[in-house]
Amino acid sequence: GPSIVWFREDLRVGDNPALLAAREHDRPVVALYVLDEESAGIRPLGGAAHWWLHGSLASLTTDLEDLGVHLLLRRGPAEEVVTELADELDASAVFWNRRYGGAERAIDTTIKTTLRDRGVEVASFAASLLFEPWTIQTGAGDPYSVYTPFWRACLAAPPPREPLPRPRTIDGWRGRAACNDLADWQLEPTHPDWAGGIRDEWEPGEASAHRSLKRFLAEDVGDYDEGRDEPAQDSTSKLSPHLRWGEISPNAVFAAAQERRKGARGSTATGISRFVSELGWREFAAHVLFHAPDLATKNWRSEFDAFPWPPLHRSALEAWQQGRTGYPMVDAGMRELWATGYMHNRVRMITASFLTKNLLIDWRLGEQWFWDTLVDGDGASNPFNWQWVAGSGADAAPYFRVFNPELQAKKFDPHGEYVRRWIPEIGTDDYPEPIVDLAETRRAALAAYDVVKRSR
Ligand code: FAD
Question: According to the UniProt entry, where is the signal peptide (predicted)?
């Protein structure tokens, strides 16, 4: 029977070790994607993520067809779907690239055991991270809990492998098998169609990912170190959703950055270093998740369990979600998120600090909103960064560091360009009054934090 390549968070043809292994295996190859939002512990995707997945699968289908490989789409608990398909096709082997979430790993381990017991060859590969989580440890053999020594250890480890070549042709399996129609999955919104702004901003798929990388390294990297904190200057790479869905590998991004570094000086050289260290934060978040699989629900620092969150003030949460808090930098960010499925990193920090510290709303509710609305909503980076801002996470900002959204706006949007882009009614009566007082709420947050400190 054929070899099956099971695609998951690696929706690309280039630098894909599982696909190359199948090609080398001398059996015809068929590809599979399973939409699994049912298995225990698997977090159903948010709306914006569904939109992205639709585009990415459409693009992958075409890219694979060009190589002669058919992508089968099936839906259901992965354990059932994958083992049944292997039986149905009498598959000789199943290949995939690894994932690092707890529930995902448990599923993959079970499938591996079941298939091997049935005589099916199974092999998994490293493709979504630069460094496998179990290879980066402190001298004492523990995971790192602070970014700087973590990234230093990564850079001292054997370097990430070079991206693998893109196959030109593959001997595709010619048999027949049931396949869902992508449209039937209804991943795109219809009534109402809220994705207009997302569609204008983004193009999912591998080709688009490589174009973004090229553009960034050719045009923007020189402004990155200076401009990356100013949301009005579009000087960041906008690679996050492409990396999230594996349309481009971190190895490809890393290698292109190293190549660009050759002979680079001044702001280009500093921009590249800074950019590569941001890839390091992505690695750190994934490694932290690997060691703390409950990252999206559980305080990484358990002393935060004592934090006295007041009863939820639902209208405050809604004002935050809808960008109606009366604080322009917060509202601009929340509206950018709703309109485009993305928010600039600096503004993500400001809006998250405002929710957790000025509104005293549990970080998990903010994390969940981002998960639903971000096109790059990631099982590691999203909870990791929320906990970082909230103060409960690994290498977190100290809790008493409360961003003042007005000072942040002065510093990072000095001409008010970003705020005006998203709040056309700014300065008129239509714009709401501030819903809370910054100084008062800051004091309340610090008093609540005292409870955590005392419980230690
Ligand atoms: P660039 O500045 O060009 O950075 C390059 C790449 O580095 C990014 O594409 C991303 O993969 C990685 N990166 C950069 N900063 C971080 C970071 N702080 N943590 C992890 N990786 C990083 N990023 C996500 O990819 N998914 C999320 O769900 C997510 N949720 C976040 C929630 C909060 C509250 C905060 C404060 C940050 C979050 N981030 C998340 C991190 C960061 O905001 C985005 O990765 C970044 O804004 C993406 O834009 P870019 O691709 O232009 O970034």
Answer: none
